[in-house]
Specification:
Elements lengths: L1 H20 L1 H25 L6 H34 L2 H6 L4 H31 L10 H29 L6 H11 L12 H5 L5 H11 L5 H5 L2 H31 L6
Helix pairs in contact: 1-5, 2-5, 3-5, 3-6, 3-7, 3-9, 6-9, 6-11
């Protein structure tokens, strides 16, 4: 645990220094995503003829915030590999003795913590504006954290996959933002997709989709955690998480072997 905690401390300090140095950009980014959600909420209200309920707003907010954390982590984990390559430090990382997947894990954990704090601030502001009824309590926190953590493992696996592809093919970080946008609209993060017969089964294959639905069941609909943990939805969440994590680690291992065989790290 020592090396992991040390890496976590270093990465946390790195994020703090970057946030302090670019605080104006940070504030603008926060305002952008707050206004973005409020605008989407207004559009949904108009589309439903004023029948977009406060419960639906709360469900959308949960999905939106989880997506925001996942998208931010995916982008920064992938971009960090591109930045190390551009600055010429990628080879030093490989020669430092720290296992690259361990470094990305520490970086991903730090980013989850960082973006969770940012999303909580966004949530407080949005809740004060919309004032939807809150049905969950502090007693629900452990169950919510369990589902939240499992939900974010799938996009982390996707970030590992993209990082591996970057090592092998270079300059693939440009697809991260379009991919994050796809996850916003095709996973049901903003509104459940169970009313769309063709799209709903396909959305089950994407990261976030199953986990967001379970979080909504638990926090909005009040489904007991024991019921969720014994449901097929929870089994689907575990399978989805295992598949994306496995694919990410395998891709990273394959890319490492290819980079070592080709000597391509020296080309950065």
């Amino acid at each position: 645990m020592g090396p992991i905690l040390n890496l976590f401390r270093i990465e946390l300090r790195r994020e703090w220094l970057l946030s302090k140095s670019y605080w104006l950009e940070l504030v603008a980014d926060q305002l952008f995503f707050i206004l973005g959600f409020l605008i989407l909420t207004g559009l949904f209200d108009v589309a439903t003829g004023g029948e977009y309920s406060s419960t639906a707003q709360l469900a959308a907010l949960i999905g939106y915030l989880v997506w925001r954390v996942a998208a931010g982590c995916m982008a920064e984990v992938t971009d960090s590999v591109a930045d190390d390559a551009q600055w010429g430090t990628l080879e030093q990382v490989w020669l430092s003795g720290t296992r690259f997947p361990l470094l990305l894990t520490a970086r991903g954990t730090t980013l989850v913590f960082y973006y969770t704090i940012r999303s909580l601030i966004m949530a407080v502001i949005i809740l004060l504006i919309l004032r939807p009824p809150l049905t969950f309590t502090l007693a629900d926190l452990p169950g919510a954290l369990l589902l939240y953590g499992l939900t974010l493992l799938s996009p982390f696996g996707l970030a590992l996959l993209l990082s591996g592809l970057h090592l092998a093919f270079k300059n693939v970080s440009a697809i991260t933002q379009p991919l994050a946008t796809i996850l916003l609209f095709l996973t049901g993060a903003l509104t459940p997709l169970d009313g769309i017969p063709l799209l709903y089964p396909l959305s089950r294959l994407l990261p976030l989709s199953v986990g967001i639905d379970l979080l909504r069941d638990f926090l909005v609909d009040g489904v007991p955690l024991s019921t969720i943990l014994t449901s097929w939805g929870f089994v689907a969440l575990l399978i989805n998480t295992a598949l994306y994590l496995g694919a990410g680690l395998l891709t990273l291992y394959w890319a490492r072997q290819r980079a070592l065989a080709d000597g391509s790290l020296a080309h950065y």
